[in-house]
Amino acid sequence: MFFKLVYRNSVRSHKENALFMGSLIISIIAFYVVLSLSNQDVMRYLKTLESDAIRKLFSMITVLYGFTLFIIFALIYFASKYQIERRSHEFGVYIMMGMKRMKLLLMLLLEDISSSVIALLVGLPVSVLITEVISLLTVKAVGIGFMGHQSTWSLHAALLTAAGFLGVKILAFLILSFNLARKEVGTLLTDAPDNVRKKGYPLLHAVVQAVVLILGILLLIYAYDTGVSGTAWAGTRELGKTVVTGVLGTLLVFRGLRFVIDLIVRLVKSGKLHVFTFRQIEDTVIFKSGTLAICSLLILVASSCLAAGVATFASYDMYDKIRIDYTFTSFFKGDGSDPHKQIEEMGLAGEFLYLGELRIAHPYVVGDENYDSAFEADEYKRLLDELDPKFQYHNNWDDLGGFPFMICLSDYNKLAVAMGGEPLDLQEGELGLYRSESFAKGGNIDNQVLERRPRVTLVGKEYVMTGTVQNYPIVTDMFTTLSGAVIVPDADFDYFADGREEVYVNGILDRTKYTRSDMVENYTKLNKLFDLEGLEYESYLQNMGRQLFYLVAASYITIYLALIFLVVANTILGVQFLMGQKRTSRRYRTLVKLGADHPTLYKSSKKQINWYFGLPIAVAAASTFFATKALFNAILSSRTKTNIDEMLPVVLIVVVVFILIECLYMHIVKRSSSRFLETLMTPEREE
Amino acid sequence: MEPILKIDSLKKYYGKGDSQTKAIDGITFEVFPGEFLGIMGASGSGKSTLLNCIAAVIKPTSGSIEMDGKEIGKLSGKKLAEYRGKDMGYLFQNFELIDNLTGKENILLPVSLHGGTEKEGSERFGKLTEYLEIKDILNKFPSQMSGGEKQRIAAARALILNPGLILCDEPTGALDSKNAKALMTKLSGLNNEQGATILMVTHDSNAASFCSRIMFIQDGKIFHELRKEDGEDRKDFYDRILKVLAQLGGGSSNVL
Ligand SMILES: Nc1ncnc2c1ncn2[C@@H]1O[C@H](COP(=O)(O)OP(=O)(O)O)[C@@H](O)[C@H]1O
Ligand SMILES: [Mg+2]
Q1: Is A97 in the B-facing interface, judged by CB distances under 8 Å?
Q2: A95 near A185, Cβ under 8 Å?
Q3: pLDDT tens profile A496-509
Q4: Most exposed among A425, A436, B36, B63, judged by the fewest C-beta atoms under 10 Å?
Q5: What is the span of the domain harbouring residue A148?
Q6: A40 and A181 share one domain
Q7: Reported pTM
């Protein structure tokens, strides 16, 4: 009898509560996707390139797993809380009929276990399917199809998923059942709204609320402005300011929203149950403005993460970019080896579009005692201070130091031309400035300084610095490149280098020799040949692996977090709404007694749901618009930034996915609400 | 004169077999326009069930209910909702005000549910609020009102669409005697001056003494009927009600 009851209840509750079941299954998918990350084809490939990266990945997975546990706990707690509250009347009746509380809790535990098992039985296969699809898609996008696909299935991941899920679920159950056990039967049997209005809405309140609303909007505008103009990224303090004003602004906007809703109640006078519908919405705005604001912020974080993740991934195209594919390692001139010649002898010179030396050196001609002041650039620094009084951009000037690297002008120019750029034109007595791409962010300031031709001295000789800031990579590995250097005309370079320069041979591959899809294979083939010949070199492949790793990891994690945040925000919204509706069922019953039919109530409920979800989404959408703009400015490198228009389709896809997810959630909540209203249509028996 | 409400051998049984309750067990009566009919009976005698059947909230087991010549068992969908909201005004023991709507918004709920022209509504709204003396509390929320005020707001709501029949289920049940008397005075005033037809369930003899006719029911059947004589004093009528109630109590204890 008891087990039959458990069975019946759990079957019924799955049918009745798509939201609850959906949350459970999504939790399982979230766990599994994180835990099986290292089994993805991309990750397996990266393992062959960068064992270091994989170590990082594993530490990251642990953090992510912990974070997921925490978030999923919140999700399950909320969903179960609603589940229990929805049935509180039923529990009250069980207790009234003489069921012991322990037995009731046991019943709930059994139901809980059965729903967990069902969720696992559905969720695990779905997760495996999803990870397989993700794996196949990324392989395709990255172009490493030659690796061959391996199943991402991992027993270890599945077991950890089940453990994490059950652990979180049991914890939520314990907390909730503890609360349930303490409740009086009376409170179980009756529904009462959490909050009842005790006061009207005097003019003073309205004025205060309008002020709060305006203040919130102003704060948001400030946050948007600093974000988009870029000042937010100048330092942690500025960023902190932007975040705090943004959060505060959002909270205040929702606080002050009552003003708007009250206006709608008063001014718009049409539609069945119009006043009731908006009073209900107003209630949420009064009593739940914090929750709405937090959900709105969660949605904002989610959509920004999603946009950033998708954009990072989409900006990745290793094929089209012209770059140095090989750098044959540095050696001091005169040690006998000549990779350039060796490659020609191997008959591989034809593979390259460009193969040329690049010489760099310190100004060695200086005596040891003067190393720290071989290069004096006081005028440059003074101009920098003048043009950038807030010191936002020139904290990296010191990297040049008093003993900088010099780059040989003619070598650099050949490379620049090969990469499709303009050569730097320097006359006798002139120096150029080199900055690596990642250090060139504040490039405008440097260019402005260079325009004024500051005077500097290099080993006692006077020069002016001129031209524009140069930032073509000078070796293939972007991590070993110079952050800054001076570009010196050949004759002077030779003199200062004192025969102790380092020579790199850079090669750019001929793109006509391979296609996009066998790009990686081509590298692998050439590497084998160079290895056989005993050449020392760096190939772009390592660099790419590293880049790919960061890229894939970054986009995976951001997209993953985005979805988790989105699910949590929507679940909280949905559960809050349905719980609120349950608690205010008295009002709906009154309407039924006054002759309202189900379609009328449902219409009002739908409208409430639209507003309940719509308000946080609308605010989040406005913020997302500015946040993604700011983010794109910050993350995308200066080269991709020019292609921001090309990001448009990406953004569009994100928006569409987003709208679909929101519509799905709203639909689920509407259906639950409809079924709940159905139960109110028959008169309750008054005892 | 045609009756506004005709009830014929109405039955409502709950449950099946041994545990069956005959909440209404064959009741027949008529209500005429302008009448103030009271229904009295002990708790559990089937009064609320009867009212709910008339309000079409529950379906009778058998028998017919005809309102203004319409058989309400045949109504469905929109017509049924309209019948409940427009042809009928309902006054409840626990007021059934919606706690997050102001007094005014509560009164106008039926208008928003069932339509009616704005002008008609506002004219009637003005008259009703004046008569029921609730003009000052229109912008208050129910939690700020006294029981008597709440019930007068509920009365205005029941009357706002000018229904053919007003059903009251123990309207004074949650009021103290002073507020109960004030409410009954207003209700009987509406009946006398505006010819409102009222059907009221109560077990408060004081409230019942405002009626023009009283039916006593017991165990789902009509047991007795009292009619106020022309010019009869309310006090005298009250005494007669008490006598019947004493009989009713005695009768049932004899049966037991
Ligand atoms: N929904 C129901 N299910 C079963 N029995 C009911 C239901 N509603 C009322 N009853 C029974 O019908 C009888 C009449 O109830 P009711 O009409 O509420 O009486 P009253 O309003 O006169 O106190 C009672 O015995 C009551 O227990
Ligand atoms: Mg009753």
Answers
A1: no
A2: yes
A3: 888 888 888 899 98
A4: A425
A5: 1-190
A6: yes
A7: 0.79
